Amino acid sequence: MTIGQVARKAGLRASAIRFYEKAGLIPRPGRSGGQRRYDDLILDRLALVEFAKKCGFTLDEIRRLFGGFRDSAPLSERVQDLAVRKVQELDDIVRGIQIMKTALSRAERCRCMDLAECGRKLRSGASRL
To answer: What are the 10-residue block averages of pLDDT along the chain, 129 residues in total?
Structure first.
């Protein structure tokens, strides 16, 4: 298949496919008459790249999914390993967001007249600003 055919079947732009190739997420295809030529397996690989992106994986994490494990590791083991790490990362982000929301709620109730008063209340651990 040409890059245009792959793009249509995968629902991507040809530029995205070239980017994935340059980023090492998909293998460099053979060429015929100066054009890239792909086999049908590229569609499976692109589907996995797009799924990984939807899960929030970085390009580096996706590269590891394809090549960062011992050769005998089944794909499911690779996906599960990265998924566990990503869920932990998301849990950490959620905790950080909750801390920010709590602080912002506290700031919304601020009645301090000046910076000195606000700073004193924050240092003393007062529950209200």
So the answer is: 96 96 92 91 95 93 76 78 93 97 91 91 76
How many CA atoms within 13 Å lie on the side-chain side of 19? Answer: 9
- Cβ-in-10-Å burial (0-12, 13-18, 19+) of 129 comes to middle
Tokens, residue 128: 């209200």
* Domain 1-55 -> CATH class: mainly alpha
Structural domain boundaries of the chain?
Answer: 1-55, 83-129
Biggest distance spanned by C-alpha atoms of the chain = 75
Give the pTM. Answer: 0.72
